[in-house]
Write the structure tokens for this entry.
Amino acid sequence: MSFLDESYIIVAPNFAIYDTEPWHLGLLTSRMHMTWMRTVAGRLKSDYRYSTSLVYNTFPFPPISEQRKQEITQGVFRILAERERHPEKTLAQLYDPDKMPEGLREAHRANDLAIERCYRSRPFESDAERLEYLFGLYERMMAEELEKDTLFAQQKKATKDKK
């Protein structure tokens, strides 16, 4: 994931987020989001199939302060600066786990900690713990939507209109 200017053309099955803020990149590249994605996304062969409806729109993320957004944004700029230190490498080369530059690895680690602080004060011990926490939030999020009668509201309305 990265930032692109308006001169790029996005071709399916890729996704673009328009009018976004830099901290969104930090969230989407975080270990929290990637752990969620690896669990709920579909697959084609062994490749993940990112989906806005299954991954992006279901990812539980709490409201955060402007200060926290700024902290994450600074982390994003650090990640991008570290990528730029290696212009000869593709993203695939930069993110090869065995060859990842240490500065880039550290920038992502700092970003992961900043994202985790959005959820709680102490870091998570494992991906299993992250998932348990995220699914707990997801259950509460769905219960709130059901309580407000907003979950599937458009589908209910469309069904009523057809009758």
